Amino acid sequence: MAACDGIIDFLAAFFNVSGRELRSPSRTQLPVARVRQLGMYIAHVTLGIKMSEVGEGFGRDKSTVVHACHTIEDLREDEEFDMVVAHVERLVAVAFSLDVAPGRRDE
C-alpha cells in the first residue's frame, strides 16, 4: 500500500532509522519496533486506513496493528511522547493533504 510506504519513508527520515528495518518482517530492536508501531498507529488513526490494510502495508497481521495502536495510545499518557506523536500526526496529515486546521474553509 502506497500510503504505508510513504509513512515508512517519512518515519525513517524523521527518526533516522533504517527503512529496511521498518519494513523487515522479522523482529527488530525496541527503538525500531516503536517507530514501526507509531507508523501503524498514524496510518490507522490519522489516515483512517483499516487495520487489516495497515497490517498488509507494514508486512504484519491485523493483531499486530491492534497491539501497536493500543501501545501508542498508552504511551501518549507521557506528555513528551504525546507531543512527538501529535507533531508527527500533523506532518503526516499535511503530507497527505488532510485538512488539519479546525474550522478551515476551502475557498
Supply the key terms.
mainly alpha; globular; 107 residues
Order of helices and strands: HHHHHH
Structural class: mainly alpha
Assembly annotation: single chain
Distinct helical segment count = 6
CATH superfamily: DnaA protein, C-terminal DNA-binding domain
- By DSSP, the count of extended strands is 0
Largest sheet: none
GO biological process, one term: DNA replication initiation
GO molecular function: ATP binding; sequence-specific DNA binding
InterPro entries: DnaA_C (IPR013159), Trp_repressor/repl_initiator (IPR010921)
Pfam family, one: Bac_DnaA_C
What does this structure look like?
With 107 residues, the chain is an all-alpha fold. The protein has one domain (2-95): Chromosomal Replication Initiator Protein Dnaa, Chain: A (Orthogonal Bundle). It has 6 helices and no strands. The longest helix has 17 residues, at 79-95. It is globular and about 30 Å long. Residues 103-107 have low confidence and may be disordered.
Reconstruct the topology from this structure.
Layout: H1 2-15, H2 19-23, H3 30-45, H4 51-58, H5 62-75, H6 79-95
Helix pairs in contact: 1-3, 3-4, 3-5, 4-5
